[in-house]
Amino acid sequence: MEEKQLENIVTAFNIEGTVDSIQPLGNGLINDTFKVTTLEAGKPDYVLQRINNAIFTDVDLLQHNIEAVTRHIRRKLEAKGEKDIERKVLRFIETADGKTYYKDSHDQYWRISVFIPRARTFEAVNPEYSGYAGKAFGNFEAMLVDIPEQLGETIPDFHNMELRMRQLHEAVAKDAKGRVKAMAPILEELERDADEMCKAERLFREGKLPKRICHCDTKVNNMMFDEDGKVLCVIDLDTVMPSFVFSDYGDFLRTGANFVAEDDPQIEKVGFNMEIFKAFTRGYLESAKVFLTPIEIENLPYAAALFPFMQCVRFLADYLNGDTYYKIKYPEHNLVRTNNQIALYRSVRSHQQEMEQFIASCL
Fold first, then answer.
1. Tell me: the pLDDT tens digits for 45-68?
2. Which element (helix H / strand E) includes 223?
3. Which of 138, 290, 341, 363 has the fewest CB atoms within 10 Å around its CB?
């Protein structure tokens, strides 16, 4: 999109200052993001984003969630007497009609937030930054335990294991590409453990497991750091919604604690990195144990196993369906991902006792 078109979109928002330039920012996979630089000294710069409403179909709900969360966190920081609050929580700019999003003439949705100066993100997944991530995401959840507003699911059933198993069963029954027979050993293993892996939904129905406001996309690069390497705030709030804490805990470990990428074909190198597990868990419990219930803490090892299991189910279902959901780079890509994730699942399960002992030591 040309800069002039972007400038026209920016004018729909009540920003301070005059637009000097608009340039692409970052390498996000979901939303198109731009930095809006202003001319005047003392005026903030901004981040302009096109919201991917193919994924987030209810933009009004999406922005309601984000507004409620950032407003609540801001109040908490003010009550604590925090300094430099503008760098510690995102602030979104309203349009003339009081909304934090704008729909253009092409039915595309846009939003603007204040750019956080002198801040950066990191891609490194090592024990140091995993510890920072655990503490930051645990603190994020802790601040939102008493949020008064009702939040909705921006992606319904995003981490619902029962749904994922139903989708796998449908893919098996259809057998669109005649691949089911060759997958019999993996399918048997998944079916063997499916009941155990679906226990979060059962515990919730029984009233034993609460849903919290969670981030649901807990990656190291979804935190902003200041110039001294301290965490400023959690960013990328599109997936913030009610979920089990297992979502934030287990999803980070699935990607961060695998020795290799999720589509690495060298399956013999797949494994669960206990140093990353320990660093993230120590940080997470340091900030989250103030609100976690015994049943949530008891099931953190389950959460670590749940997410590679769930992703294995999703990759396998897509492979059986003929690779219709995930982008693939070669015909067996989803099969490689499936084998990678079930290997990670097995590795996590082999560390069950060690995980339980470490969690007990943190408490």
1. 999 999 999 889 999 999 999 999
2. strand 223-225
3. 363
- The SS3 call for residue 331 is coil
pLDDT digits (tens, 9 = 90+) for 77-115: 999 999 999 999 999 999 999 999 999 999 999 999 999
Backbone angles phi, psi at 247, to 5 degrees: -60, -50
User: How buried is residue 274: exposed, middle or buried, by Cβ count under 10 Å (0-12/13-18/19+)?
Assistant: middle
46 vs 227: CA distance, rounded Å: 19
Rounded-to-integer distance, Cα 274 and Cα 295, Å = 22
Tokens 């804490």, residue located: 245
Amino acid letter for position 152: G
Angle at 38 between CA 32 and CA 43, to 5 degrees: 120
* DSSP letter, residue 354: H
What is the spatial distance between Cα 112 and Cα 226, in angstroms, rounded to a whole number? 21
What torsion, rounded to 10 degrees, do the Cα atoms 360, 304, 269, 126 define? -70
Contacts of residue 353, Cβ cutoff 8 Å, sequence gap at least 6 = none
225 Cβ contact list (under 8 Å, min separation 6): 119, 120, 121, 122, 132, 231, 232
> For the chain (length 363 residues), average pLDDT per consecutive 10?
87 94 74 90 94 92 97 96 94 96 94 95 89 95 95 93 98 98 98 98 97 93 89 94 96 95 96 98 97 98 98 98 94 97 98 98 95
DSSP H helices, 175-273, are 184-197, 199-205, 245-256
